[in-house]
Design brief:
The protein is an all-alpha fold. The protein contains 14 helices and no strands. It has helices at about 60-75, 80-100, 110-115, 125-150, 160-180, 185-205, 215-230, 245-265, 270-290, 295-315, 325-345, 350-370, 375-405, 420-444. α8 packs parallel to α10. The longest helix is centred in the last third of the chain and has 28 residues, at about 375-405. The radius of gyration is 24 Å and the shape is globular.
Length: about 450
Amino acid sequence: MDQKKKPRGLKRSLAKDKPVAPNSEGGEVAVAAKKAKLDKPDLEEPSRTVALNVDEEDQVAVLRSLYDTAVEKLDADDIEAARDFFRGCIHECDKILQIHNGVIPKAEVENAEASNQMATPTEPLAPEFHLLYGSALYQLGLLSASDDEAESGSKESDSLESFLDTALERLTTGLDAVEEGKVGENGPDVFRRLLVAKAKAQLHRAALWLPENAQTASQKSEDAWKLLNDAYSFIAEPNASIDGAADDTAKAMLDVAQIFLRHAELYTSDQGGCKLWAQRAVVLFEAIISADPPHFDAHVGVGASLLAEANSLLEEDEENCDDAVPLLDKSLKALETGEKLAKTDTGDDDEKIVTLLCLMGECLINKGNLTDEDGSEDDEYYTRAIACFRRVMKIEDALNASEAGAVDDRPKEVASYRLLPPQFAEFVDEWEKDMLGGDEEKDA
């Protein structure tokens, strides 16, 4: 290509911070309110009615079912349904909390029988209530931020800030309830999940202070680190190891490593912060690999973490950044290992291979941009990147074909599946135009 392409980082949607169900290790957790009425984000009334296969007298079971359903919808990329179920969970939590605090007299509750089942002010709300409340607020905030970014092109969102602040208040109340001995069943497990959930929400909140208030962001991030350390002591070990540990410990380490990676990726203008969190992620991913060498997600995690650190350097000086080269080399090696594992172990797992291919293509573009222009080495990197992106496009076309019949008969603008980020699709288009232009010059 005649002109080097500026590195374009993969814009990772906040909505893809997919939650772990609240009954699983490392799951997200929520909070209870200390007061009846709070300044919280505007929420539309839930618009779906669903039959829940749970005991309606068990308030927490009802909330858990709503939240789990929302998570399932989110995992299935049914964003609208997920949003409705998160809203429904929050709506029910609001009502329970207001009745509990006497804001809504029981006599005014529409269903008198249901009102008799509500908690009374003398009965403390279960910590898991706060867990589900805060988790739903957190997840809905991420979805709202994704919508705001799509509309305005900006990641800064007053809506996200409001959701996160409210979720953090709920989570803190839940932790206070546990510390006061109101643990109920599965107390230690709920306490740990509350710690993890609050840490995740606090890390997202800290990132919103960047770059204007880097000192506050750093302090809040370290507070989140302490919460995670309280939940899982292994994160502070210089040579973390899970050899011989139970499967749930390995899963917890993967969850925490991915939290660190996502936080590192949010540091677009703070190279020091990105390096700190990316290296913390790498330590845990490598510990997983040490115990389980063919672990696909851990190898991809190492590659993504190193790529995030390299990208933060390139943001500072994209034309002359020698420090980024070894990071990119290590990232590419880890991703190539992941690609081999995907071929042998995961088969045609489209979701996994798409993420890997996008990361690998981005890494190769950066390698090409940092290669001397004399010679064909840079073109070799670009060619490999194009091959990665075309594989993603092929998967995208196949998915659209299976949904709509024939891809050729389906307008591209109404395709349901868009797996390749726009900046990479643009790179492919520019490459193809350059190649076509070169061929025409030869013919002339």
